[in-house]
Amino acid sequence: MILVGFMGSGKSTVAKALGERLGLDVMELDAEIYALSGKTIPEIFAEEGEEGFRNYEYRVLSSACENDGIISTGGGIITHDDSYEMIRKTDRKVIFLNATFDSLYERISDDNSRPLASQPREHVKALYDSRIERYRNAADHEVDTACGLEDTVEAILNLTR
């Protein structure tokens, strides 16, 4: 299973809960990028730009898809065409975790570890708007995360049985 969605949609939290419920390993792509590069995400953005980060992301996605388990992606993975196509063509279930933009923005607005979230609200909203169709096109199912963690996990389990 691959979880996609905008920053703050709950991908990491939901992946962990699903992994525990299903007894599956969880691969956090951001953690794998750090392991591969030895740099934090803000460091990669500062030194290599977004394109450098997306290249690392594609490499760890390729590796992750070779293993069983749950893959928690970064919010912008669908902006890199090669990563987007890999997700669209996978045999794994792809779940788009979504919520209202206002909810997502509230969750991320004070998070300094998200380089793209530190922009003005209208820029973050434009980013969300520019990605929404790609999330939907890549996913097998869309799940609203506004209902809380347990209900979100149950909804995903019901969709993937």
UniProtKB/TrEMBL annotation:
Binding site for substrate: 30, 54, 75, 131
Binding site for Mg(2+): 12
UniProt feature coiled coil, ranges: none
Database matches in Pfam families: SKI
This protein's pathway: Metabolic intermediate biosynthesis; chorismate biosynthesis; chorismate from D-erythrose 4-phosphate and phosphoenolpyruvate: step 5/7
Bound cofactor: record note: Binds 1 Mg(2+) ion per subunit.
Keywords of the record: Amino-acid biosynthesis, Aromatic amino acid biosynthesis, ATP-binding, Cytoplasm, Kinase, Magnesium, Metal-binding, Nucleotide-binding, Transferase
Annotated localization: Cytoplasm
A GO term, aspect molecular function: magnesium ion binding
Catalytic activity: shikimate + ATP = 3-phosphoshikimate + ADP + H(+)
Single biological process term from Gene Ontology: chorismate biosynthetic process
Record EC number: 2.7.1.71
PROSITE patterns given in the database record: SHIKIMATE_KINASE
UniProt binding sites for ATP: 8-13, 114
Top-level enzyme category: transferase
Any one GO CC term of the record: cytosol
Family membership: Belongs to the shikimate kinase family.
Role of this protein: Catalyzes the specific phosphorylation of the 3-hydroxyl group of shikimic acid using ATP as a cosubstrate.
Cross-referenced PANTHER family: SHIKIMATE KINASE (PTHR21087), SHIKIMATE KINASE 1, CHLOROPLASTIC (PTHR21087:SF16)
Quaternary assembly: Monomer.
Protein name: Shikimate kinase
The species this protein was found in: Candidatus Salinicoccus stercoripullorum
Taxon lineage: Bacteria, Bacillati, Bacillota, Bacilli, Bacillales
